Amino acid sequence: IGKLIVHAEDRQTAIERMHRALKELRVVGIKTTAPLHMRIMRDSAFVKGDVHIHYLEKTLLKA
Description:
The chain is mainly α. It has one domain (11-62). 57% of the residues lie in helices and 0% in strands. The chain is built from four helices and no strands. Helix 1 (11-24) packs antiparallel against helix 2 (34-42). The longest helix has 14 residues, at 11-24. It is globular and about 35 Å long. 2% of the residues are buried. The mean pLDDT is 91.
């Protein structure tokens, strides 16, 4: 189990840092949820902060 955490002064910068960190992430031998997190970082509703408790469920259903 691993956890990737980023910090920044504002939401937009934190999202940019997370996107970059996910692009650079390398894990071999197992599947990861990194592609899902990349999709989330690019989702306009998430970037705007317009998310709610059912966000992930609805995001997965769109795919």
